[in-house]
Amino acid sequence: MTSEKTKETGNTVLKRFGQRALDYLRSPGRQQSVISSAPTQHVLSTPEKAFDSDSDNDRPQNITSYVAERKTTLGGRFFDSITKYAGSRFVLILTSSILIAWAIVGIVLGAPRNWQIAMQDGSSIQCYISDSLLMRQQQNNCHELLTVLVQLQSRNASYMRMLRALPNDRKLGHSATSTSVKRLAEEDPRQAVNLPTENWCDVSCNWISLAVGSIYALIIYWGGVIAWIGLGPMLSWDNLWQLYVNTATAVELTFTSMFLQNTRRRHMDYLEECLASIIKTDCEIELLLRQLTGDIQPNPTLEIEPQEVATGVRLIDYYADLIGSGAGVFISICVFIIWIAIGNYMQWNSNWWLIIGTYTGLVGFVDGFVLRNIYFREDKMLNTQFNALINADMDISQALDLHLPHQHLAFKKGLIHRMSRSMGILCSKPETVFGAVVIVVLLLCIASGMQWSETAQLLCNTPTMIIEGFLLIVLVQAHNMAHSRRRVQLRGVLLRRLALLDYIKQMVEQASVTQGKTIGDEKIRIDTEVVYMDSIEL
Questions:
Q1: Of 416, 323, 298, 418, which is closest to residue 374 (Cα–Cα)?
Q2: Beta strand segments in 207-298, E
Q3: Which stretches are tagged as biased composition: Basic and acidic residues (predicted)?
């Protein structure tokens, strides 16, 4: 009897272990809900307790800024730190310095063959790592923005609840908007597109970002490729001819990938400053409304439900999660260890040097399409949530009979814009991603038939590096367009909240005057943590 129970217990343990292992393997790429609520602002009616040290520990803390979700694992936090550091100004300057030093060495040595192969290998490895960091950066930025948007909508729901509780005679109807808010609303929304510049480096980066992400950069890029093809007969289509374009694209890939990481970080830092202003204004509105209504109900928890995706898209998401996680780093480390281990067997020859470049080049080729696909879908999701927030703001506007400013950035619908947008959409389609996988398989078959000679490996590297370089330019272009729109959207969110805050302040003032008081007579103590006030009969 005991042995049967032991056997049954063992089977149960194995079954649970197997289920957990299966769940773990299935978890990458799984669509996740974004669930959050805005931190509730507390209004207390006991100012005396503000000076009571015994009550400090019980005092509710008002959170007036966005608190990023802390990763549960040490590895996740470490990976996020590396991702953020990779987008720093120091890393960008270091990368540029290495490229300049490499160019100087090539000039001195006469651009030998090993010099070119070293650049290609170094670039392929760097881009392979950068793809993981770009994916992580992309996912983190999207999740942070979605969380903030959910919290803003959470507060909007509380606003509507409290405004409905107010008697109609408390509402002002058509109220005068402050001069400062009017002036901001009348400004050209395109001014929000321009990033504030701090020093020469920021000025240079802003200019380079626009230049690299333009249609003219693509024209120059493909013009160079066509010129290289034209030189083929003169160089007998040999390996050196392939090395030339591989070296050129390697330089472009290295710079563009590192520059894109830096651009994303600078832009996200700016968006975080905008969000800080929005959240601070939001908290002030909530405090005043709670003061008016005596409402103590917490802000509701809202959810952005996961999108339903097809099986093919689920596979793309699975792969993307592997790239942007510790699993991707682990796979990369294993590949590099194996590559180094076979070096002695291959006598450290040129084929051995090319192997790692071939592997990282082929993987990076697929990664470029995956990055564009994920970015396109995340950008679409963010636009949907911004539109939902705008609609919620308009509901508040109608409830108060108040005009809230709404600005929209209209891009020029010229030929260049249409071409850029069409290329971006085409490169982001799931069919394009799977087409890239098919191309990689074909190249692997061809290289195997050629016994993985130097020519075979260069054949794998050349077309994939050219297309990967093109995709990075398209990604910079898409990023510039999306963040221009995002900055205008956030400016609109802030303007609407400033107008609403101005309206609520007038309501408070009117209510105070109605009671024969002035705002200055109210015993309201506001600090950065919590608001204390005497009982106010409004």
A1: 323
A2: none
A3: 49-59
Residue 513's pLDDT is 63
Q: Which residues contact 498 (CB under 8 A, 6 or more apart)?
A: 180, 181, 184, 281
Mean pLDDT is highest, among 46-55, 101-110, 195-204, for: 101-110
Report pLDDT digits (tens) over 154-175: 999 999 998 888 776 555 555 5
The distance from CA 387 to its chain's CA centroid, rounded to whole angstroms, is: 18
C-beta contacts of 248-251 below 8 A and 24+ residues apart = 248/224, 249/465, 249/466, 249/468, 249/469, 250/119, 250/120, 250/122, 250/123, 250/124, 250/465, 251/99, 251/119, 251/123
Q: What is the DSSP string of 416-471?
A: HHHHHHHHHHHHHSHHHHHHHHHHHHHHHHHHHHTTT-HHHHHHHHHHHHHHHHHH
Q: How far apart are CA 140 and CA 145, in angstroms?
A: 9
3-state class (DSSP) for residue 173: coil
- 487: nearest Cα among 205, 269, 199: 269
Residue 479 and residue 290: Cα distance in Å, rounded? Answer: 40
How far is it, in rounded angstroms, from Cα 488 to Cα 503? 23
- The whole-angstrom separation of Cα 111 and Cα 103 is 9
Whether 230 contacts 99, CB under 8 Å:
no
Query: ∠ CA(148), CA(190), CA(403), 5° rounding?
Result: 65
| pLDDT value for 438 | 93
* Sign (positive or negative) of CA dihedral 469, 470, 471, 472: positive
C-alpha to C-alpha distance for 337 and 104, rounded to whole angstroms: 31
34-36 and 302-304 as β-strands: parallel, antiparallel, unpaired?
Answer: antiparallel
Beta strand pairing status for 524-526 and 531-533?
antiparallel
Q: What angle do CA 447, 452, 458 make, to 5 degrees?
A: 70
| Burial 162-201, CB ≥16 within 10 A → b, else e | bbeebeeebbeeebebbeebeebbeeebeebbebeeeeee
Using alpha carbons only, give the angle 144, 146, 152 rounded to the nearest 5 degrees: 105
Tens of pLDDT, residue by residue over 248-289, are: 888 888 888 888 888 888 888 888 888 888 998 999 999 888
Calpha distance 379→81 (Å, rounded): 24
**Which residue type, as a one-letter code, is found at position 455?**
T
Instruction: Quote the CA–CA distance of 262 and 266 in Å, as a whole number.
Output: 6
Helices (H), 27-71: none
Structure tokens at 486: 């995002």
Residue ranges with strand state E in 265-415: 302-304
Arithmetic mean of pLDDT, 193-204: 63
| Kind and range of the H or E run holding 369 | helix 350-400
Helix (H) or strand (E) holding 532: strand 531-533
| 3-state SS assignment for residue 305 | coil
Q: Phi then psi for 389, rounded to 5 degrees?
A: -65, -40
